[in-house]
Each structure stands twice: as structure tokens, then as C-alpha cells.
Amino acid sequence: xxxxxxxxxxxxxxxxxxxxxxxxxxxxxxxxxxxxxxxxxxxxxxxxxxxxxxxxxxxxxxxxxxxxxxxxxxxxxxxxxxxxxxxxx
Length: 89
Hints:
By secondary structure, the protein is mainly alpha-helical. It folds into 2 domains: 1-58; 60-89. Helix content is 79%, strand content 0%. It has helices at 3-28, 39-42, 45-58, 61-71, 74-88. The protein is flat and about 50 Å long. The N and C termini lie far apart (45 Å).
């Protein structure tokens, strides 16, 4: 694994940890288990800033462009799925 990928993996892991913290606080406050927790409400200001910084580092413009090149936009994938469903009829 390249050092860059290792760093991104560690950053992604920390991002997941912060999301779990927000989720746990949401559930402890009586939140519904089938709904997503809003990180804006359930993270401290420091945690929120760390989350945003990590997200900007992980999901940089190059990463986003690579993903879109490989997978297409959600609109393109939805259109392809609808077309496949119509073809199956």
C-alpha cells in the first residue's frame, strides 16, 4: 500500500469513528434507530471541524473526478437502471 493510500485509509477510519460518535449520541438522546444522525447536532465544534477537514482531504477534487469517471453520476446510474428495468419488461 502506498503511503498516500495508508494516510487516506487512516483518515477514512477516523471519519467513520466521528460518524459513530454522532450516531451513538443521537441514539442515547432518544433518536429513532432507523434514521440517520445529523452530525451538525451531535458533534462538538472541535469534532465537527475535524470531520470537515478530514472530508475535504479524503474527497479532494481528483478523487471525486476519478470516481465519476469510473462510475458516472447518480443521475447517469439512475437512468441506466431505469433503462435496464424497461428493457426487462
